[in-house]
Design a protein that fits this description.
The protein is an alpha/beta fold and 366 residues long. The protein has eleven helices and 15 strands. The structure holds NADP nicotinamide-adenine-dinucleotide phosphate.
Amino acid sequence: MNSVKGASSIQIIAAVLLLSIGAAAPATVSAQTIRQYVLEPGSDGLQLNVREVDQPVPAEGEVLVRVRAVSLNHRDLYVLARPGSRGRVPISDGAGEVIAVGQGVSRFDVGDRVAGTFFADWTGGQRTAEAMATARGGGVDGMLAEMVLSHENGLVEIPDYLTFEEAATLPCAAVTAWRALFTDGGLEAGDTVLLEGTGGVSIFGLQLAVAAGARPVITSSSDSKLERARSLGAVGTVNYRTYPEWQTEVLALTDGAGVDHVLEVVGQETLNRALEALALDGHVAIIGGLSGRAGELPLESLPNGSSVTNIFVGSRDDFESMNAFLAEHQLRPVIDRVFAFEDAPAAYAYMESGAHLGKIVIALED
Ligand SMILES: NC(=O)c1ccc[n+]([C@@H]2O[C@H](COP(=O)([O-])OP(=O)(O)OC[C@H]3O[C@@H](n4cnc5c(N)ncnc54)[C@H](OP(=O)(O)O)[C@@H]3O)[C@@H](O)[C@H]2O)c1
């Protein structure tokens, strides 16, 4: 995996030191203040610093959420390299409980269990440039704080059977996989699905595909991760290190027909190979650039009838449809490791290491 410039280990050590010497992290917080992380300039891009700020008060239409857990996405590493996110509270994904509501709020009451939508302001329908600019933890403030304010339209109720830690994993990776497979991909039982690597998006893609009666094939650099993927329902597995021409193995696993869906999260290193493994009438969801974004789409390699969509997470409608599906199938997100709020920089370093399978969570105390 490419190293992410903005999340260098030196920078993370610096942030850990800052926390451990208490320069910016008060040990206790009075009733009127909260702690939040803020992205501030470091030696190499942005770094995470803890700041104490006044407890927010909800204005008309707003909801105050006590955050109970957040989860990391690979994007949170990229954001560290984007000067435009300076001053923002990081991390798009979080869940918690409503502790106050502003005037006119009708969707939520105090005590409700909620998660933030990835876009603070994309409820459904067509994307707008304005909505795309409201990606939490980058374009607007994110969730790595003891409390956050959100307009009521930027929250969803979380399924009763999920813990806060599980619900915190959903807004970006799970909604992206949902949108790619169902909203755009029209996944049907019996379809084959190719998932690249065992990170957050891919493992949600695997779980959603299995629950829908589809047949997922997954790649990984690790045989032990592939074994775990099998236990989650993968019908085919390929180690992309052992088999650099892994697309040939994927074709063999599908009796030469190719896969009906690809969740393309790696980019430069995988797109051409994934297209070689795509079936006629297949669908490719362009999602990520773990090896760098693919710069070109080789049209001559697209099988007849195939389609390509460019995914940017999904709307609140997608999130709510997915939550109904999760509850119907009692799906539980795969959490690799949980870190404490104080250890957020270590959670970032762990994500950068690529050792995880599924999701990395940061839990906040009650
Ligand atoms: N467009 C969107 O809406 C959207 C939404 C979500 C995410 N994304 C993007 O999608 C990508 C994945 O995000 P994520 O949060 O799921 O990442 P993640 O959890 O950090 O996934 C990392 C895993 O990907 C696998 N991987 C890395 N390099 C690979 C390579 N060259 N070939 C095959 N697999 C490789 C590795 O799996 P193994 O250890 O098993 O080898 C690695 O552990 C990122 O680029 C992210 O920005 C885009």
